[in-house]
């Protein structure tokens, strides 16, 4: 266990020993404000811009200017297969086979596309389990899928409730599965909970779903690029994620999806069909006979947005150079250091609801001092150029991202948080 103290010198010594510190220089940070450097801890909401993103996008623009339509075949990275430039990186970060991942659409669109395949209610199995504190877009998607099949969400939506500690417990999910034995068609769950930062035991959840005879899918918006994943080994039916959080691809960027390889040979697996899901070798014959593309690519509907994929490639290059194992170790050390500083300096004012044995880089902080207004504390942090985010009713989310956050960033967060609590 690393020995910490509360001095600035300790933070700087940790940075000096950090073998990943070089990657910080590859990202653009918001500007200083009132002579305070920006402490950016909001990668769980929008990742910083990789400096190489400009070059990647400019390359596409230049090829467009030079080749026009022939860029599909003659561009530096031909547009016809451009989405595959991201395949190796996404497979590495998700623990998937290359043919199980694809870059396409946006997150909620992908959830709908995938649920069209894996939520197939029948006379007995028609219910979906989600967590009661699901991100609203997931809740809306599930509600609309149930209604799309002519069913009543009041009867078919089952909610996994957190306990008083605000965390999800597997025992409670097991109780739900027993209570609704033979009725569950699908579980749609997060890999990492957006509000608490809790990392769910995805391997166990997959086992539970299989034992219950149900399909399972994961929303990995807060998981990919944050925690190690082994999707092929764990065996969920599907997963989907956005790329603008930890994958640093820019606001509203194109998303990704995973479908387990066992479904590629299952003739009973239905899916929505589109032109780009057709086999590439015969796609341009314009034949009405649909020949599915290999693997997860058959779930594609339209040709990929090349300009929107370009920044993802810049970020994936950095991930592959750093290595997820090394990033995971640094992340664990950084959150341990942050908790040490909070416990030593602000234990009477601040606590975290993120479980110590199931977390990534996000810590969800709550202001425990009843004499303080938590929202006002957050706003004072903003005024001191600390960028985290607020979630009602009382959570300040901060995420030291190991790709670009330093230990000195963490030191500055706690120092400025101390000022923000004293100012109340």
3D architecture notes:
- The chain is an alpha/beta fold and 424 residues long.
- It has two domains: 8-49 and 323-422, Aspartate Aminotransferase, domain 1, CATH 3.90.1150; 77-320, Type I PLP-dependent aspartate aminotransferase-like (Major domain) (Aspartate Aminotransferase, domain 2).
- The chain has helices spanning 8-16, 52-67, 71-74, 87-94, 107-118, 136-148, 153-156, 170-179, 202-211, 231-234, 306-322, 324-345, 374-383, 407-422, and strands at 27-28, 39-40, 49-50, 101-103, 127-131, 157-160, 184-190, 215-219, 238-241, 256-259, 350-352, 363-367, 386-387, 389-391, 395-398.
- It is globular.
Provide a brief overview of the structure.
With 424 residues, this protein is α/β, with parallel strands linked by helices.
Judging by the overall fold, what is the CATH architecture of the largest domain? Answer: 3-Layer(aba) Sandwich
Q: In the CATH hierarchy, what is the class of the largest domain?
A: Alpha Beta
Classification by helices and strands: alpha/beta
How would you sum up the global shape?
Answer: globular
Let me know the average pLDDT. Answer: 96
Helix content: 25-40%
In terms of DSSP E residues, the strand content is 5-15%
Based on the model shown, name its key terms.
2 domains, seven-stranded mixed sheet, Aspartate Aminotransferase, domain 1, 15 strands, four-stranded antiparallel sheet, 424 residues
SSE arrangement:
Elements: H1 8-16, E1 27-28, E2 39-40, E3 49-50, H2 52-67, H3 71-74, H4 87-94, E4 101-103, H5 107-118, E5 127-131, H6 136-148, H7 153-156, E6 157-160, H8 170-179, E7 184-190, H9 202-211, E8 215-219, H10 231-234, E9 238-241, E10 256-259, H11 306-322, H12 324-345, E11 350-352, E12 363-367, H13 374-383, E13 386-387, E14 389-391, E15 395-398, H14 407-422
Parallel strand pairs: 2-13, 5-6, 5-7, 7-8, 8-9
Antiparallel strand pairs: 1-3, 4-10, 9-10, 11-12, 12-15, 14-15
Helix pairs in contact: 1-14, 2-11, 4-11, 5-6, 12-14, 13-14
